[in-house]
Amino acid sequence: MTQAEIATPHVVQLDPDHPGFRDPAYRARRDTIARIALQHRFGDPIPDAPYTPGEQEVWRAVWEELGPKHTVFAATPVLDILDRFPLDRTTIPQLSEVNARLQDATGFSMEPVAGLIDARDFLAALGRGFFCSTQYIRHASVPLYTPEPDIVHELVGHAALLSDPVLAGLQRLMGEQVAGASPTEVQRLIRVYWYTIEFGVLWEDGVVKAYGAGLLSSFGELDQIRNGPDLRAWNLHEMAQVPYDPTQYQGTLWVAPSWERLQTDLQAWYADGGWRDRHYTNPSAEA
Ligand SMILES: [Fe+2]
Predict the structure, then answer these.
(1) Ligand 1 center–CA 121 separation, angstroms
(2) Under-70 pLDDT residues of the chain
(3) Catalytic: 153?
(4) What is the average pLDDT value for the chain, to the nearest integer?
(5) Domains and their CATH numbers in the chain
(6) Which of 79, 102, 179, 197 is the residue whose CA sits 20 to 30 A from 129?
């Protein structure tokens, strides 16, 4: 750490191997954008994030790569959703702009947070129609990679899924379950969210396609879904028990039989309290 960094503590802590760790201008913007989140109350007007021309260039570079990959790897219903909820591919949309459209579509709003938050808090907000979103963008030196969720992930991945009434309803349902859930139940809820909304894949005409936000926004991970991970038969009870590592490409994915089964099975699982301890033989061993 340099003397300047000791003298001026950062709001946002970055690991020494983060691409922006030694870029004072990037770190200053990360701190500025984090302060927006720290001063924000859910539901209040969201101040615009001060993106630089270089960051706008990152956004355009990401879309140039991701757009063509979506046509190959994204599930058809997701492509339809992306068509109905297009994002400006030349200028980073501000959360306030996206929210105006989301409000009309599903009532959801994306609310800025400074970084990753606790699973119970994230799900509880989801249940109230608030999606906790980062607002900063990845470092310009590696436009196709980010070690943490950024505005590319939130908008390219999550905004579209939140604009669809059925998927938005499912996500609200996922969040509503967390009230009164035990720690192991919260783990199961966030894992099913992770392996579906974040890293979900499904069968489409005998081919594995992506619908999860983490895949739709990841240039590197998207084109490996058919030959990288262990592709398992669709099983919500099983995925609810398998821990995940957000810092690595996902080693295991559960393939939904279809877009329709994805929705009906999730709704049935929640209606039945499928995440409840009573459905598991030794809940205390999972914690
Ligand atoms: Fe995400």
Answers:
(1) 14
(2) 1-8, 284-287
(3) yes
(4) 90
(5) 20-285 (1.10.800.10)
(6) 79
